[in-house]
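Section: protein folds

Sequence with per-residue tokens
===
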Amino acid sequence: MGMIATFGDDFPLTYFVPSLMASGVTPENETVSAQEYLAYAKEDLKGDDNRALINAFGNAKRSIHKLVDDLIFQYGLSSYCRRSSFPQKLQALSEMEIVSPFVLSALNVDRNAVEHDYVAPSLKRTREAVDVAELLLMAMSGFRMGIPYEGFCCWRKDRRHVLLRLNPWECALTLHKYVRPDGARFRTVAGVRCYWQQVRDTDYRYHLEVSDTPWKSIAITKQEKVTWGPILQEFVKMQKADRFDFPFVSMALDERFFDVFKGGPAEGRSVHHLADAEGFEKSQ
């Protein structure tokens, strides 16, 4: 039996259980992945002149920046970070406990030297940059997998059981009312009344009727951070703890579902068609 996350009185939700988890969601029309930039950097390192070192260092940096931008998008933070510098983006991810900014900030100084002071990086420093990019891609892979993009919850303030969606294209959390089907079950878990029934099946079909128009929408902006911040932080904790079992998560995207979502991040392909899933619409 899967686990349901329950929360204390200071949290916007009383409980949350995911019904749709997805991996590697990136913006459309981006044709070069972080993995590909890293591959270019490794190829550049085969040379030993200034041109090769500058290109290798630059592609290592592009790999890191692309990874950071992908993470920003995947968690719906694009609007929140729209005018942010690279260090500010790192700070945003650090606040979410996704990445520490210290090593990356040090690399950013070297990039400025190459771009603005016309100083070629040393072979040693370039190899370090490529190694760091590779390690970061490996370390961050867990945060690109299984993000809870949808789940059932109770909105504490209104005591309403609703479907919550994290929409990275709209940069918003939306809450949707549902029509209770016959035989819908609720149970008390850790003193919290929770919806206890499958929301979707493995064909992505709902087992209950959900409204298309949100009952409530929370923009992921600086003004609304006090509301969405704790929720996204909890999503990150769920990923770290691997708290949910597959039998209860009715739509966990592992290798079996890569064909539906047009590829998988492990192979360097972007999964940017989350909107193809029934009931999850991308803005036009």
In short: Residues 243-278, 280-284 have pLDDT under 50 and may be disordered. The first helix runs from residue 34 to 44. Residues 82 and 281 are 22 Å apart (CA to CA). Helices lie at 34-44, 50-74, 86-95, 102-116, 123-140, 225-241.
